[in-house]
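Running this now, will post back.
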Amino acid sequence: MKKAVFFLLLLSAVAGLQAQNMTIQLTSPYNRQQFATCSEILLHAEVTITAGEIKNVQFFRGSTNISSDSRAPYEYTWKNVPYGYYRIWARVNDKAGNSVDTEPIFIYVGDVEKGNMIMNGEFTCNGAGWGGLNIQSGAAATVTYDSSQIIAQGEAAVVTVTNGGSADWHVQLHQPFPIDSGVTYEISFAAMVNEPRTITIEFQENTGSYTIHNSASVALESSDIYGPFIWEAPVTDPTNYFRFCLGGSPGTIWIDQVIIYDARYTAVKDRRTPGSPVSNRIVSQNFPNPFNGETVIQYELPETADVRVSIFDLRGRQVAGLLAERQNSGDHWVRWNGRSDAGESLASGVYVYRIEARTQEKTSVLSKKIILLE
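Update: finished.
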């Protein structure tokens, strides 16, 4: 018995020594690097080993393995990366079963706030990151999820349910979202319906007993922002999914601006202070939001450009053109009174303001949501 214990301890010590003979470092991207929405991002790792042989290098987004490379150079081009705030890390494995991980880094894609951990909450890049619609077998549900509508100017996912089965969970729009026990998550989203309906949002295990960890019923009655819903995860579940359950009755649902903040990463939010360097992207904010009567859209240009500011509804239809002119770099503002180009008062709801800045070299686009209250 003592010999067996000694042998196991010896194996453990050898494994630890072999693991120490490997090093791995992410050299691309760098921590807190900013990318445009729908970019191609090169993940590259530098690896050394002084004993044994390397089996492979794995690249991870959160707890999801997005690629594995068994030959140097150890890299992966992550294509069409949608809007989001991502935790990236890499692992090297040797043929003896040992592994070494890098420290995680965080990257920003699009104009996303620190701590928003949902992937592609704006439904850009043809809905990349979302698992599409999950139709439960035997539910006889029939649904339209037209990808051509997802990347409209309003950037909303459009789900048309013609037969939703007998329960809301028979039609699901979802994506993987690993959770950690005791962590608080703050959830909100914009939605619009053609007629009132109730949906369910939930955290659910995606294996085994498919346990629902957290859920909430949401009555959708108009175009609005719903939430925040504050959930504390009861368990650590790397298989967890965040789901919209949309079945049960026919109708059309527009979903947009999905946000899930992880409290661990939002205690101190990154803000640009006055006088600090201007970034290479458009920076914008409108106030007040929500608004009644008038709102001011303020924006900052990194360089001189031909600028167009427009308002869209969530269906992607332009309802107002506010500005179209050449402007110098720096701070600018434009007012919107909640009316269409024809001077008509628009209905209460969620709208999108879109700022397009065009130079000879590139075109930058920023879209954000505003809420009009009658």
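The CA atoms of residues 307 and 357 lie 5 Å apart. More later if anyone needs it.
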